[in-house]
Design brief:
Elements (H helix, E strand, L loop, with lengths): L7 H4 L13 E7 L4 H13 L2 E7 L9 H5 L6 E4 L13 H14 L3 E5 L13 E8 L7 H10 L4 E6 L4 H13 L4 E5 L1 H13 L5 E4 L11 E2 H7 L10 E7 L7 H11 L4 E7 L5 H7 L7 E4 L6 H5 L2 E2 L1 H6 L4 E4 L4 E4 L2 H12 L15 E5 L3 H12 L3 E5 L3 H11 L2 E2 L12 E4 L24 E4 L8 H8 L3 E3 L1 H17 L5 H12 L36
Parallel strand pairs: 1-2, 1-8, 2-3, 3-4, 4-5, 5-6, 6-7, 8-9, 10-11, 10-12, 13-15, 16-17, 16-19, 17-18, 19-20, 20-21
Antiparallel strand pairs: 12-14, 14-15
Helix pairs in contact: 6-7, 9-17, 9-18, 13-14, 13-17, 17-18
Bound molecules: NADP nicotinamide-adenine-dinucleotide phosphate.
Length: 552
């Protein structure tokens, strides 16, 4: 069962405590349910969440709609949508029947109606019902996007909505550009993972609202965020044309903790900024930066697979970046971007904090310490570089021996065959492999007999925070350093570089921990934060609701 883990701020005691009644958030909560009673329940939940309006997907209803029942005592404005199959909706009838249903919804008193651009001329304006003219394309961003947009501008509508599936990163920028130049209120975004940032960035460019699911199990379109994520991670009500944009570039990016920790930092310090997860395919960082210049991105965290190409996008760089040819941070300057590496100081700070202090109370030193590094990937390279520079005597070992051999040769340190890894004495052991990472949480890259009191054992994995290796090392009396510690330190250094301000490190750590903590599955009806659920065994008036991710 999916659970909305989007509420780290509230669990950290920060958000949702602002008390006084406030303007609704610029969100349209999408309600895609098969039963009238569940729609009613979600309408109430949408009102409780203080969103601007709720979209009732009439096409999802298993029975003929009873508009009077749906609209009775409505606590917030409602939008009626009857999406046809061609637009990934569920309406099975003819276009004439669909037109009739939309007219009935208008007459019944819906506040808003969504009408596709090819249909809008055939449905006259009536009463006070406002009109959204919409265009959906689940295959591509069409080459005649501007012609479509011009036609939509001329339609008798109050809001324009365009949602397309991007094939390449430049497509996202093309769609967002529509919002910048629109003369009418316009919602324009891309779907899918690549489109996620556009669902938020459009608000900073002037879009009147964005769409969100009330329930993480019922995302009505690919890439749709939940209302909880929009409110609690991205703080959408604060976004405006002054909002500065930051983000993380990588692929994959979906499970990055960076948006959670940076956005909570911005909010805590009252900085008008938004941090977004940009899914940028390998080799496309330059295209991304060039096409997204209108967003005036102020800073980026850089992760796999762009750490090397980021160096080539920079107009200046720290000496460390020049040496390692690897950057995890790009910061906007007057002339372009400065490339930085916050991984390495984070590794050294984490390890030094774990070392026993000297007898005179000064911090322990890595000099002449025997360090065993497990792994030979990107993180291992940073770790080995940091340790050798700090004077440690480093031995590298890796499941694939050749890679460790090469890394050792590149860095001038020792190489050890993987199957001999339990034969060396070490002061420090660092796991830089992904062995033990979720979901393989019952694995460890090394036998626990290697651990003893007085050693420092670090795992760079942060999901879970307490890996089997960390637990075993702790059990043997070693001092442990977790990957979460390293992650938070590098994020904090990025935050300083982005904003010039001291980040709320403890809060960032807490929200990251909350996001990683295994969630206990609560009974559906009790999941207030995820929208109302269906109690087990309840009599249904229609077929089951669609699974998460079903197209809509
Ligand atoms: P990478 O470049 O893909 O390298 C993965 C390494 O793990 C390789 O050495 C690989 O060995 C080894 N490996 C994978 N599965 C293994 C297994 N079952 N047994 C033994 N070795 C195995 O990845 P990376 O970017 O270096 O990341 C490594 C770890 O660091 C990941 O777990 C990641 O979550 C963590 N990380 C932490 C932070 C942080 O801030 N704390 C930041 C980034 C990454 P082969 O060469 O034999 O394939």
């Amino acid at each position: 069962m999916a659970v909305d883990t989007s509420n780290p701020a509230q669990t950290a005691g920060q958000a949702g405590q602002e008390g006084a009644p406030r303007k609704p958030d610029p969100i349209c909560a999408v309600i895609a349910r098969t039963r009238h009673d569940m729609i009613r329940a979600e309408i109430m939940e949408a009102a409780r969440r203080n969103v601007l309006l709720a979209e009732v997907r009439i096409d999802y209803l298993a029975k003929a709609p009873d508009f009077a029942r749906l609209l009775a005592d409505k606590p917030l404005p409602l939008l009626a949508t009857v999406r046809r199959r061609d637009d990934k909706g569920r309406f099975k009838g003819t276009e004439d029947e669909r037109r009739m249903l939309l007219r009935q919804a208008i007459v019944a008193g819906f506040d808003w109606v969504d009408i596709e651009e090819d249909l809008i001329k055939s449905i006259p304006r009536y009463g006070k019902t406002k009109r959204i003219v919409s265009y959906h394309n689940f295959d591509e961003v069409p080459s005649d996007l501007h012609a479509i947009f011009r036609r939509m501008h001329e339609a008798d509508a109050d809001v324009i909505k365009i949602a397309c599936m991007p094939k390449q990163i430049e497509d996202v920028a093309r769609v967002l550009d529509l919002v910048r130049f629109a003369k009418k209120p316009t919602i324009a975004f891309c779907m899918g993972d690549m489109g996620v940032p556009s669902r938020l960035a459009q608000l900073a460019l002037g879009a009147p609202f964005t769409y969100g699911a009330l329930n993480p199990e019922r995302l009505a379109a690919p890439g749709m965020l939940t209302v909880g994520q929009l409110q609690n991670i991205y703080g959408v009500r604060r976004l405006n044309k002054e909002t500065k944009i930051y983000g993380v570039v990588g692929d994959p990016i979906g499970h990055s903790l960076s948006p959670i920790v940076h956005n909570i930092g911005f909010r805590k310090l009252g900085i008008n900024a938004l941090y977004l997860p940009f899914k940028v395919p390998e080799g496309k960082l330059a295209n991304f930066l060039a096409s997204h210049t209108p967003l005036k991105i102020q800073g980026l965290s850089v992760t796999i697979p762009h750490k090397e190409s980021a160096v080539h996008q920079a107009t200046e760089m720290e000496s460390l970046v020049a040496q390692t040819q690897s950057a995890n941070t790009l910061v906007r300057t007057a002339s372009g971007f400065k490339a930085m590496n916050t991984d390495r100081p984070a590794i050294l700070e984490s390890l030094t904090a774990g070392l026993p202090a000297n007898p005179d109370g000064s911090p322990g030193s890595l000099k002449q310490k025997m360090a065993l590094v497990l792994g030979a990937g990107g993180v291992a390279r940073s770790v080995v570089h940091a340790l050798t520079d700090a004077g440690a005597i480093v031995t590298v070992t890796n499941r694939t021996d050749e890679k460790a051999h090469k890394l050792a040769a590149d860095m001038g340190c020792r190489f050890l065959e993987w199957n001999l890894r339990t034969t060396v004495l070490s002061d420090i052991i660092i796991n830089c492999t992904s062995c033990g990472m979720y979901p393989e949480v019952d694995e460890s890259p090394i036998h626990p007999s290697m651990f003893q009191k007085g050693m420092v054992v670090m795992d760079t994995i942060y999901n879970p925070e307490n890996t089997l290796m960390i637990k075993q090392a702790r059990g043997h009396g070693a001092t442990v350093v977790t990957g979460l510690d390293m992650f938070i330190r590098q994020a904090a250094a990025q935050f300083r570089a982005f904003t010039g301000q001291e980040p709320p490190v403890d809060l960032m750590r807490q929200v990251a921990k909350n996001a990683l903590t295994p969630i206990t599955v609560r009974p559906a009806a009790a999941r207030a934060g995820d929208g109302p659920g269906e109690p087990a065994g309840e009599k249904s008036d229609g077929p089951a609701d669609p699974p998460a991710g079903a197209p809509a």
